[in-house]
Amino acid sequence: MFRRKVCKAFDLRYEQTRQHAIIMSANWFLWVNLLFSIVILVRYYFNPSVNLAIPAGHADFSHLPLFAVMVISAAVLYMLKYSPDRLSRNIWTMLRVTMLILSLNWCLVLFLLFASGGRPVIFALASILLLTGLIALYVDALAWFLFSVPLQAAIIITSLVFTSYITVVNVLAYIALALLVESARRMLNTWFVLAIHREQENNDLIQRLEIQANCDPLTGLANRRAFQVMLDKAVQRASFQQGDSTFSMLMLDVDKFKNYNDFYGHQAGDSCLIQVAESIENAVRANLDLVGRFGGEEFIVLLPQASATDAADIAKRIQSALSMRNIEHMASDVTNKVTVSIGIAEWSPGLTASQLVSRADSALYYAKHSGRNQYQMFYPANNPVKEQTVKQA
Ligand SMILES: Nc1nc2c(ncn2[C@@H]2O[C@H](COP(=O)(O)OP(=O)(O)OP(=O)(O)O)[C@@H](O)[C@H]2O)c(=O)[nH]1
């Protein structure tokens, strides 16, 4: 089951990376096609003695496919640059069709050059096209075959048409070339897959380490360190924010938990802590509040955009969520169910994170000393008022 999930994740990553790679290298390859066709078109200006002579009469025809290569390459480059969704399936299909059309045009160029006496350079020209195509398209076997197969076929057909015979050496050379490029494509693709595997493994490892560094292993909640980071950020944000920047926090402690452990055993204690954690998580506001394990049987909740009164509502919800679980605690002198005491503190300008925590802690201390199974708010004079006490039945 787990393996299947890993494979799925790999498949997805592989497809996405392949798509990125093919777009990136197609860009490069289209530029190569564009520049290559321009160089062949203007070759006389560079070196009039170059052996790609095209006698009059043939020249126009040979220029046509070269122009076509130029125009198609430029048009597709333009589309790739300005397409709103460069990674869509349609773009991928368009690129494959483009590779076939470019290849057919190059076949025509080779054929016409061969016919006009440029024979000695045909093999070199085809080899350069095949090698650049291989570098650009090895990640997409279909695009590569659409580009390479017509070219390789063209070399053989052209030889057959323009020479009355075809030697064994020629045939062997063609076969060797075909085998060489295919084995090179497979090798490059193997490295590509391996690189994605490594990246996937590294990502998984980073994810695991992040979870280990930030999560409490028993409850899965944020650990104290992760909570502290979020709390510091909340204080920073609130300090720089104008207007309504209030936020609050809750500090919770399971009542008479030592007795619970002694009575039911440590393992049952662990399971009780997990249930308390779940109750808290279910009672807070999803995607907004952050629940953490402060240590031992103490929990902490960060409540963004919540005043002390809002926090008291959430504290009530936590108490009733826990009460509904009905976890027996026969060793408690508070009630015969597991209960929590809660301290509430609201941030006010100038307060540091540790000052806020210590306010929540002293409100919790007050709740404990007022009989447990209740919440208490902290007041600036560190004198929580008794009217704020709400006992859970
Ligand atoms: N099972 C279990 N117990 C834990 C864990 N962490 C801390 N404890 C226990 O939690 C208990 C905390 O006990 P105390 O701090 O004395 O508090 P209490 O018994 O809850 O009493 P009050 O808080 O005053 O109501 C200790 O017995 C710890 O061993 C844990 O991960 N699992």
UniProtKB/TrEMBL annotation:
Record protein name field: diguanylate cyclase
Domain of life per record: Bacteria
Top-rank EC class of the record's enzyme: transferase
PANTHER family cross-referenced by the UniProt entry: DIGUANYLATE CYCLASE DGCM-RELATED, REGULATORY COMPONENTS OF SENSORY TRANSDUCTION SYSTEM
Cofactors: Mg(2+)
UniProt source species: Mangrovibacter plantisponsor
EC number(s) on file: 2.7.7.65
A GO molecular-function annotation: diguanylate cyclase activity
Pfam families named among the record's database cross-references: GGDEF, MASE5
Keywords linked to the UniProt accession: GTP-binding, Membrane, Nucleotide-binding, Transmembrane, Transmembrane helix
Protein's pathway: Purine metabolism; 3',5'-cyclic di-GMP biosynthesis
Membrane-crossing segments per the record: 21-46, 61-80, 92-115, 121-147, 154-180
Gene Ontology biological process: cell adhesion involved in single-species biofilm formation; negative regulation of bacterial-type flagellum-dependent cell motility
Reactions catalysed according to its record: 2 GTP = 3',3'-c-di-GMP + 2 diphosphate
Gene Ontology cellular-component terms listed: plasma membrane
